[in-house]
Amino acid sequence: MEVIIAGGGIGGLAAALALARQGIRSQVFEKSDEFGEIGYGLQLGPNAHRMLTRLGIVKEVEQTAVFPNALVAIDALTDRELTRINTGEGFRKHFGAPYMVVHRRDLHGALLDACRGHSEIGLHTSKQLARFEETAGKVTAHFADGTNVSGSVLIGADGLSSCAREAIMGDGPPRVSGHVTYRGVVPVDEVKDKSHFDDMTIWIGPGLHLVQYRLRGGTVMNNVATFHSPKFYAGNKTDFGGPEELMQMYSPTTAHVRDLLSYIGKDKNWILCDREPRPDWTRGNVALLGDAAHPTLQYLAQGAVMAMEDSVVLAEQLAKPSVEIPAALKAYQEARYLRTARVQITSRIFGEIMHARGGARDLRNHLMSQRNPDHYREIDWLYRGI
Ligand SMILES: Cc1cc2nc3c(=O)[nH]c(=O)nc-3n(C[C@H](O)[C@H](O)[C@H](O)COP(=O)(O)OP(=O)(O)OC[C@H]3O[C@@H](n4cnc5c(N)ncnc54)[C@H](O)[C@@H]3O)c2cc1C
């Protein structure tokens, strides 16, 4: 079996690695001229830790990871702590794995190094999947540079605006949420208030939230500010989310929260998108994986983790003896569909809770303040993983 993987992000590389560990050969085709990731943070719940173990790279990732003491929610209008989930000893024991935060490049780099160490994996850059065709159990992928390659399976791990998805599902561009994110990573010496250094902290307010946690052995601070764009909701769907809207939305927050905006870059933003869950991301010998299959808002911090879970399940299905490829791909999708759908839908709901206004905010604050920081029932389904 030779698997063609379109896309060399976290999902594509994790898929190649998971397949190689089952003895299955693959070729990864990445459209950019080098493999890489953006320079910001990723939260990895305990379900991710389990996948990293199964991918054989947990030690490498742990080397630079930070293990927060707690996930802390603070009201951005008052600076009052609302609740926390302790992620120390009790959490680790409960889930059998820790909560980690990592630099994206460290995770992607660990995946890439591991892929380079496997003779079953071929890695190719400047190869943009343009189209593909299937004939008699064979898939031929055509690239934008006019070249093509054939294999027995094609995995579309080509992200949010997936070319493979459009060919299989034809459902057009993703849903634009109207939520916008700005990010920034700064050396910890530049951070004035050190009171939240050991936690993953999230300040939540009306139509906004700001996340802060340290990366790379604690040497740098990752800051992520998200807000609902007023222009988008006023009907301007093409030109919205500029830095003036960021500052305007954060103007009611405390001086402390507004201070945190100084650690955020104002020259680039990310318009957040997702899609409705759908159970038809395989066709014949072609399947989607990661954001191509089930893009989600980042509010549960699980998009990359889901891509890694997908990879492990996909490889298990394709490695079964006397495998029928279309049936194995359907079994993969079936195993993943409702779990990823739950992440997509719950992420939206959690976003609404974090961004609540008025009476909804009062209720949220009341309910959050009653939580026991050492009870994990609400998050069992997610963090116990697969
Ligand atoms: C602000 C923000 C914060 C987030 N935080 C977290 C978090 O804390 N934890 C978490 O788990 N997730 C998080 N996510 C989600 C996570 O970033 C994504 O779910 C994850 O990166 C998806 O990986 P992927 O490999 O499926 O797609 P991508 O990362 O998009 O990779 C796709 C790759 O395919 C390539 N490509 C695209 N088109 C083609 C083509 N036609 N041919 C060949 N190659 C192609 C691209 O260049 C890219 O390298 C966050 C997302 C955002 C926006």
Question: Could you tell me the mean pLDDT?
Answer: 97
How are the strands ordered across the major sheet?
Answer: 5-4-13-14-15-12-16
Question: What portion of residues belong to β-strands?
Answer: 25-35%
The backbone outline, from C-alpha atoms, is globular
CATH class descriptor of the domain at 2-37 and 105-173 and 276-352: Alpha Beta
Distinct ligands, ions and cofactors found in the model: flavin-adenine dinucleotide
Count of alpha and pi helical runs: 13
By DSSP, the count of extended strands is: 18
Helix content: 25-40%
Content-based structural category: alpha/beta
Multimeric status of the protein: single chain
Query: Which architecture of the domain at 2-37 and 105-173 and 276-352 per CATH?
Result: 3-Layer(bba) Sandwich
Largest sheet: 7 strands, mixed
Terminal CA distance: 26 Å
The CATH superfamily of the domain at 2-37 and 105-173 and 276-352 bears the name: FAD/NAD(P)-binding domain
Descriptive account of the structure:
Strand 13 and strand 14 (208-215) form a beta hairpin. The strands form 4 sheets. Strands 5-4-13-14-15-12-16 form a 7-stranded mixed beta sheet, sandwiched between helices. It has a domain at 2-37 and 105-173 and 276-352: FAD/NAD(P)-binding domain (3-Layer(bba) Sandwich), CATH 3.50.50. It has 13 helices and 18 strands. It starts with a strand and ends with a helix. Helix content is 35%, strand content 26%. The chain has helices spanning 10-21, 46-55, 58-64, 89-95, 104-116, 163-168, 230-233, 243-250, 255-260, 303-318, 325-354, 358-369, 380-383; strands at 2-6, 25-29, 41-44, 70-75, 81-86, 100-103, 121-124, 129-135, 138-143, 148-151, 153-156, 175-187, 200-205, 208-215, 220-228, 270-274, 282-283, 286-288. With 386 residues, it is an alpha/beta fold. Bound molecules: flavin-adenine dinucleotide. Flavin-adenine dinucleotide is lined by residues 6-12, 29-32, 42-43, 128-129, 157-160, 163, 181, 224, 270, 290-291, 298, 301-305, 307.
